[in-house]
Amino acid sequence: MKNKRPNITIILIFFFLAGCGTVGKSFNSSEVKNIQNNITNQTEILNKFGLPFKEGVENGQVMWTYQFDQWNLIGSTESKDLVIVFDEKNIVRGYRYTSSGPNQAHH
Question: What CATH number should be reported for the domain holding residue 81?
Answer without folding.
Answer: 3.30.1450
